[in-house]
Amino acid sequence: MALLRTAGIALAATGLAHFAAPKAFEPISKLAFPNDTDAWIKRNGATELALGVALAVDKTRKAGLVGTAVYTAWLGARAAANRKSS
After folding, report:
1. Under a CB-based contact definition with an 8 Å cutoff, are residues 57 and 1 in contact?
2. Residue range 54-86, pLDDT digits in tens
């Protein structure tokens, strides 16, 4: 469980970094979100912050795992769909 707690903290920190240094996330975010990228950087940051906290807390860890899996699949699908349409 310590590994999941550490992963949660890292994911939450990454989420916060979306707000502190949004330009660092622009190149990767444009792949999945070519339109309105700046807004999506913030949305993704908020999502990653929430999922990271969920992973870090014992009571919400299972929900955090499910949410992180769904979010990861969704991001991959968005990137793949936009890659095909480019």
Report:
1. no
2. 999 999 999 999 999 999 999 999 999 988 765
Domain boundaries, the chain: 2-85
Query: What dihedral angle (degrees, nearest 10) is formed by the CA atoms of 52, 58, 59, 61?
Result: 40
Indicate the average pLDDT of the chain.
95
Joined tokens for residue 78: 């968005």
> Which tokens belong to 44?
């993704």
Rounded to whole angstroms, how far apart are CA atoms 45 and 24? 12
pTM over 0.70: yes
Q: What is the 3-state secondary structure (H, E, C) of 4-17?
A: HHHHHHHHHHHHHH
